[in-house]
Amino acid sequence: MVKPFIIGTRNSREMLHIGAEILRKGGTAMDAVEAATRSVEENPDDHSVGLGGIPNLLGVPQMDASIMDGRTLRTGAVAALEGYLHPISVARKVLELSPHVLLVGPGAALFARAVGFEDTELLTDESRDIYKAFVEDALGSIEDERRREYLVSYVEDYNLRDWYEKLSEEHWGTVNIMAMDAKGDICSGVSTSGLSLKLPGRVGDSPIIGAGNYCDNRVGAAACTGRGEFAIRLSTARAIINRMENGASIREACVWAMRDIHALNEPGGISCLALDRNGNTMSASTRRESTHYYMDVDSEGSEERLGVWVKNKEERT
Q1: How far is CA 187 from CA 4, 10, 257, in A?
Q2: 58 within domain boundaries
Q3: 136 assigned to some structural domain
Q4: pLDDT at site 152
Q5: Burial (0-12, 13-18, 19+ Cβ within 10 Å), 245
Q6: What is the pLDDT of residue 14?
């Protein structure tokens, strides 16, 4: 019998304690994933998730999140959600209370308000300063009232693909968290403020089930971070699960998925996090040394685990 445990990507050391404590008390994997994710969403020093996340090109934070139950395969997700601190919790309410899987934009905000969430200012002084500095450096000084008109002309006059080339890897960021509880149920959750300085309305892979998030008690769970467009095009999370379902080890499945990204031969990259039903964990990346963090109900602290750096036709462990 696998001990209940929780894993996550960056910023996971503190949040894993929150999730592990819930599992110790007999809580569900979904409870653990939601609580751990909320701790990242409310951290103003994390500029890629929740409060303090870098906004879109108009200066508006838009959040994406999803959560999936591996026992029932039920999911809830929100995209381009504005003004709510905990998109992971709104996503869970979509799963539990609505007949839908994904709600977006004003509809997601309306739902959040209807089920009792309070709207929140997500910009902090620091995230405003980062936004202002980047926009003025990249596009020139623009008065607030003219920014929307400028963006329209930018879309009309320029190759939008060039915009991505102006953004460093640090402008992509997501938190991935997964857990297995005492019943063997698995849950995976993903939350992000998305690509920094993105076009308004841009939705990445995080709320797209099968792209940035997928889990199934019979196999395991997988989630992604990085250039979400790649994971959408390749259905990366579901592809990892499918590979394991068809006999690949968790390591083999993650490496295969990263090589699939390399085969696109385009700028940018992806990282993934996965677990299997036997309690094995793995992370992989096309961009850097891959690490993830593990904690079970008997752990005194979190454990850093080394994943796989998948280079073009090379593998580094």
Answers
A1: 12, 18, 21
A2: yes
A3: no
A4: 57
A5: middle
A6: 82
β-strands 63-69, 75-81 pairing = antiparallel
Written as six digits, the tokens of 290 are: 């891959």
10 Å CB burial of residue 162 (0-12, 13-18, 19+) is exposed
Whether 152 is covered by a domain: the verdict is no
Whether residue 110 contacts residue 104, with contact meaning beta carbons closer than 8 Å, is answered with no
* Annotated catalytic residue within 9, 28, 37, 174: 174
pLDDT averages per 10-residue partition of the chain, 317 residues: 91 82 98 97 90 89 97 98 98 98 98 97 91 67 54 55 55 85 98 87 96 98 94 98 98 97 90 97 94 95 94 60
57 in a domain, yes or no? yes
Q: What pLDDT is attached to residue 131?
A: 81
Query: Strands 308-311 and 281-285: what pairing?
Result: parallel
Tokens of 305: 């685990």
Residue 279: give its domain's CATH number. 3.60.20.30
Going from the C-alpha of 192 to that of each of 63, 148, 170, 171, 307, the distances in angstroms are 6, 24, 13, 11, 22
292 φ/ψ angles, rounded to the nearest 5 degrees: -145, 175
Q: Is 120 a catalytic residue?
A: no
For 75-112, the three-class secondary structure string (H helix, E strand, C coil) is EEEEEEECCCCCHHHHHHHHHHHCCCCEEEHHHHHHHH
The count of domains in the chain is 1
pTM of the predicted structure, to 2 decimals: 0.90
Helices (H) and strands (E) in the chain, counts: 10, 14
Contact (CB, 8 A) for 50 and 71: no
Report the residue count for the chain: 317
pLDDT at position 168, please?
46
